[in-house]
Amino acid sequence: SAEVRHAVDLLEPHYREVVILKYYHNKKNTEIAEILGIGQNVVNGRIFRAKKMLRKLLSEQRRKREGETD
User: Which pTM value belongs to this model?
Assistant: First the structure.
């Protein structure tokens, strides 16, 4: 959705790139590590943190949108 894409765009570049490779290009974590020249544990950590940030951003966007309709 546009809402999710906007939230992804707000991520710092090193988080955004792993999210795009994993969820938009369907790459495995091992492939992402190889593409970016980083360890798989680093990829795992970035994906974990990026998902946490996305949940927070999307929650904030929903609260803001719901506040506008009240």
Answer: 0.87
